[in-house]
Amino acid sequence: MSAKAQQLKHHIEELIHRLMIVENRFLETNASKLSNTEMKVIDFIGKEKECTMSEIAEYLMFSKTNLTAIVDKLVRKKMVQRDRSEEDRRLVLVSLTSKGLKLYEQESENHLRFAEGMLQSLDSKEQDELLQLLSKITSS
Fold first, then answer.
1. How many CB atoms lie within 10 A of CB 116?
2. HSE-CB of 36 using CA atoms within 13 angstroms
3. What's the predicted TM-score (pTM) here?
4. Which of 18, 32, 46, 95 could form a disulfide with 104 if both were Cys (CB 3.0 to 4.6 A apart)?
């Protein structure tokens, strides 16, 4: 592995670690006994608004069996709801309840504050360069 790849790997791992700390603090203070896994499901559904179990499982790389158990817990905690599709009654759509949406919005705001904190150490030109480079990396 090249030295540059090693440096990039280190920085990615550090960012992931910092984000995990932020998420764990959020869950400890704001969520009613939710796991990181449950929060990932809420986050995905919040971004999509309404999705199928297969879409969630594919994106988060969970087995459908495992995801069913997670969604069952979130239904019991009144964070998500399941409804039959109007167009295709065979499809079950999952969406956030008002309680789940409130939590999703709080978590999104928390992530935004984290991102703003990261950008504070950069001047405007550096911020633009960083965003351009990250966009290039994530779109390839």
1. 9
2. 7
3. 0.79
4. 46
| pLDDT tens-digit readout, 78-118 | 999 999 878 877 888 999 999 999 999 998 988 888 889 88
pLDDT at position 31: 59
Ordered domains of the chain (ranges, CATH)? 3-121 (1.10.10.10)
Cα(27)–Cα(59) distance, rounded to whole angstroms? 22
- What is the bridge-based pairing of β-strands 80-84 and 92-96? antiparallel
Q: Which amino acid is at 90?
A: R
Q: Which two tokens stand for residue 87?
A: 């167009």
For residue 120, what are the CA distances in angstroms to 59, 101, 102, 124, 125? 31, 29, 27, 9, 12
Where are any strands of DSSP class E within 40-110? 50-52, 80-84, 92-96
Residues β-bridged to residue 50: 95
